Amino acid sequence: MNLLAVGAGLAVFGALGAGIGIGIATGHATEAVARQPEASGDIRTTLILGCALAEATAIYCFVIALMIIVMLK
After folding, report:
1. The domain that contains 37 carries what CATH number?
2. Would you report the helix, strand and coil content of the chain in percent, each value rounded to 5?
3. Are the C-beta atoms of 65 and 8 separated by less than 8 Å?
4. 23, 33, 38, 48: which one has the fewest Cβ atoms less than 10 Å from its Cβ?
5. Which DSSP string corresponds to 36-60?
6. Cα separations (Å) of 33 from 2, 37, 39?
7. Domain extent at residue 56
8. What's the mean pLDDT when you consider all of the chain?
9. How far apart are CA 61 and CA 63, in angstroms?
10. Would you say 34 and 43 are in contact if contact means Cβ atoms under 8 Å apart?
11. Cβ contacts of residue 41 below 8 Å, gap of 6+?
């Protein structure tokens, strides 16, 4: 059971990258809107799409962690 917990923890560790990526993307989008306010609609659309893809990666990591725990029990 201890190795299952380690494997699940490593799988969820992939969500850390998604969180960092979303933070960096949001910061850069804020800077871009500050520089060119007239392009805020396009920047916002691209930001939301990128954040959705990064969040999907985090959800996949979480699902894999749950599968490790449930399937290999």
Report:
1. 1.20.20.10
2. 95, 0, 5
3. yes
4. 38
5. -GGGHHHHHHHHHHHHHHHHHHHHH
6. 47, 5, 7
7. 2-71
8. 89
9. 6
10. no
11. none
Domain count, the chain: 1
Q: How far is residue 40's CA from residue 6's CA, in Å, rounded to a whole number?
A: 43
pTM: 0.74
Tokens representing 60?
């996949």
Alpha-carbon distance of 10 to 15, in angstroms, equals: 10
Cβ proximity of 18 and 55 under 8 Å: yes
Digit-coded pLDDT (tens) for 38-60: 999 999 999 999 999 988 988 99
